[in-house]
Design goal:
Mean pLDDT: 88
Order of helices and strands: EEEHEEHEHHHEHEHEEHEEEH
Low-confidence stretches: none
Structural class: alpha/beta
Shape: elongated
Number of strands: 13
Number of helices: 9
Helix content: 25-40%
Largest sheet: 6 strands, mixed
Distance between the termini: 54 Å
Radius of gyration: 25 Å
């Protein structure tokens, strides 16, 4: 496992009121996966990320990063993780090249081992390497944040709502690059509140709200759960024979009530209505 977190708890005090950000939060993030943390604002996603980054201290629980104890070896854990924050925290008076060199120095990467030019090329900022960061477009700044997270060649990359507030084209470009990073063998942990984003990118999705885990399953299983629809028909007649085709929709009959289930990926409601109509079963 890339990240193992067990029974993580964290609360904050706001105006003398205790607010639980994480409640017995337990998760395993498989190596080489794209793992999605999905939930509304205030769900606790960023709190968990900040704990991993060492910016917030948890109240209790245990975290292992590639088997290394996060509490005992925080510096070593930090070297294994690259974090792309939500905020565009870039010094506007530095160039992309200078910012990456500075970031590499902070991580103790020796000059002979730095791959600054290669990273800038990889994120599409080669031609802007000597431009001031303040002159870059919003999309370029997002890519620069990703580049900063790569300078120490981490095995795990955490992206905290990387496409929040960006246009459709930029979102598509960022999705493509996230896939490329994963294909390079990086474990990706993606926090988002966009179901579409999680569906496009993730292998496994954890849905959380108010610090609690609501669901943690493989993406395909969650999508199947979401795609399952239920419909109830109130039939006008009491005596009727269910057609054979209706039995495929797991029918439940109670007096003049007919309840059916269908997968919206395979059927539409109008298909069921048409079957009933062709068999002269009237409903209201």
């Amino acid at each position: 496992m890339s990240i193992q977190a067990k029974n993580i708890n964290k609360s904050f005090n706001k105006n003398d009121v205790k607010i639980d950000a994480l409640l017995d939060f337990t998760v395993d993030i498989p190596q080489g996966s794209v793992f999605g943390l999905l939930g509304p604002n205030g769900a606790g996603k960023s709190t968990f990320i900040n704990i991993l980054a060492g910016l917030v201290k948890k109240d209790s629980g245990k975290i292992l990063v590639e088997g290394i104890d996060h509490d005992k070896e925080l510096k070593l854990c930090k070297r294994k993780v690259g974090i792309v924050p939500q905020e565009l925290n870039i010094d506007p008076f530095f160039t992309p090249y200078q910012l990456l060199e500075l970031q590499a120095g902070l991580y103790g990467v020796q000059k002979k081992d730095r791959i600054t030019k290669e990273i800038l090329k990889r994120v599409g900022l080669k031609d802007q390497k000597n431009s001031y960061a303040r002159t870059l477009s919003g999309g370029m700044r997002r890519r620069l944040l990703i580049a900063k997270a790569l300078v120490h060649n981490p095995n795990i990359i955490i992206l905290d709502e990387p496409t929040a507030g960006v246009d459709v084209e930029l979102r598509q470009n960022l999705w493509s690059y996230i896939r490329e990073l994963n294909q390079m063998g990086k474990t990706i942990c993606l926090t988002t509140h966009y179901l579409e984003e999680a569906e496009k990118l993730c292998d496994q999705i954890l849905i959380m709200n108010k610090g609690k885990i609501i669901l943690n399953e493989k993406k395909d299983k969650i999508l199947k759960m979401i795609s399952l629809k239920k419909v109830t028909f109130i039939l006008d007649q009491k005596n009727y024979i269910l057609p054979e085709k209706i039995k495929a929709f797991n029918p439940t009959v109670n007096k003049n009530s007919l309840k059916l289930e269908y997968d919206k990926n395979n059927y539409q409601l109008k298909d069921i209505i048409e079957i009933l109509r062709l068999n002269n079963i009237e409903f209201s």
